[in-house]
Design brief:
Blueprint (H helix, E strand, L loop, with lengths): L3 E5 H6 L12 H19 L3 E5 L11 E4 L2 E5 L6 H12 L3 E4 L3 H9 L3 E3 L1 H14 L6 H6 L17 H12 L1
Parallel strand pairs: 1-2, 1-5, 2-4, 5-6
Antiparallel strand pairs: 3-4
Length: 175
């Protein structure tokens, strides 16, 4: 079963979960920085990724749908919010979708439709981990400066999760 990652773009940018995205106040540059980070992630993981931005109040003409380095970038049409577009895509793809958002309403809706939901912080950590493992993306010394150090320390004893939680965990593990 293919895993399609649906990302609430502005939610991820504003969450400060992805390093280097909020280095500028210009929203266009923030979007471009996020897409660059997603391209690095996609180069290693090969999951289809769609990042959805709110185009309702955007000034000037925006391309509603474009592909940048394997990442599908979509803007919601005028009169529709990105939340509505994300919900529609999650409802259509059901268990194939993994939704990245901190928006509780979107998360609840997606879970009810069978999609797996991941917080922006958790997805940001996964992206950072993948970027550190990608020799083309960053300097290994920089990753140690950012606070991550490799470890073999194991967690405590586990407790068996429900079947639904185990399925969600398997999807998240694929990230």
């Amino acid at each position: 079963m293919a895993l399609h990652i649906l990302i609430d773009g502005y939610n991820l940018i504003k969450s400060d979960a992805v390093a280097g995205v909020q280095d500028t106040a210009d929203l266009q540059l923030q979007r471009e920085a996020l897409v660059r980070r997603l391209k690095v992630y996609n180069r290693r993981k090969h999951h289809p990724i769609t990042v959805i931005f709110d185009g309702t109040h955007a000034s000037g003409p925006l391309h509603r749908k474009e592909r940048i380095g394997g990442i599908e970038v979509r803007f919601s049409p005028r009169g529709q919010t990105a939340d509505t577009l994300i919900k529609h895509m999650a409802a259509r793809q059901r268990e194939r979708a993994l939704v990245v958002t901190d928006d509780k309403e979107i998360a609840r809706f997606a879970r009810l439709r069978g999609s797996t939901v991941v917080s922006c912080r958790e997805f940001g950590e996964k992206m950072t981990h993948v970027q550190m493992m990608d020799p083309e993306a960053s300097d290994p010394e920089e990753s140690v400066k950012n606070g991550w150090t490799p470890t073999t320390r194991k967690k405590g004893p586990s407790k068996r999760l429900s079947k639904k939680a185990r399925k969600a965990h398997l999807k998240i593990k694929k990230l």
